[in-house]
Amino acid sequence: MTDLVHTAHHRGITTLTLDSPANRNALSAALVGELADALTRYGDDHDVRAVVLTHTGNTFSAGADLRDPPPPEALVELMRKIVALPKPVVARVAGHVRAGGLGLLGACDIAAASDRATFAFTEVRVGVAPAVISLPLLPRTDPRALARYYLTGETFGPAEAARIGLITAAADDGDADGVDEVLAPVLDGLRRASPEALAETKRLLTAKVLQGFDQDASRLTGLSAQLFASPQAREGMTAFLERRDPAWLV
């Protein structure tokens, strides 16, 4: 493991912490690779009952790293690994989540966020679409709400994220301690559960999500690659990096 992902263990719970402050934990090829390797390692560890996915800084993940993006196939593989892992994966969010980071959130089994967290599907604003991250999100999130937030790129808060099924619960307290209070009974429950029962129960819960991956991953990966290579995406990403409005703004 390098410094992009830190690991800690406590009473059967392994915590994986995203720590890439230079790009606000954006999903670079390196970060995606390291996180996938860690999930493989601890998914096979009999001493691990569950995995917590969290972050340093005020951003859980800013989405794809536009300077070093992972191939769409790598992001699909990472999200599928989270969904298919035989251990529950719990997202602990004490900051902002954007675009591809929401795919990680949607792949997790349980997610809690502080009341300072914000969420936005910003893909349309840089000329692409939330294609591959739809694989875990469409089966688990309110479709009318997704239509609004996918199409507009609006920012919304944790109460709305909980209402539409993007997260499990929103903490009342604004700091990370509030999220930990929400997750304390969750982690206690996971520690009390039989490992085999947890794995089988997770299979019941994720069967339809994995079916969607098997049916649609190739098509959505192709769509993502096509859009990222388009002239509008080049303009949108350049505008984002240069901190200016894109040419299509009216």
Automatic annotation (TrEMBL):
An MF annotation (GO) of this entry: catalytic activity
InterPro entries: ClpP/crotonase-like_dom_sf (IPR029045), Enoyl-CoA_hydra/iso (IPR001753), Enoyl-CoA_hydra_C (IPR014748), Enoyl-CoA_Hydratase/Isomerase (IPR051683)
Gene3D superfamilies assigned: 2-enoyl-CoA Hydratase, Chain A, domain 1 (3.90.226.10), Lyase 2-enoyl-coa Hydratase, Chain A, domain 2 (1.10.12.10)
Top-level taxonomic group: Bacteria
Family from the record: Belongs to the enoyl-CoA hydratase/isomerase family.
Protein name, UniProt field: Enoyl-CoA hydratase family protein
Organism: Streptomyces phyllanthi
Origin organism lineage: Bacteria, Bacillati, Actinomycetota, Actinomycetes, Kitasatosporales
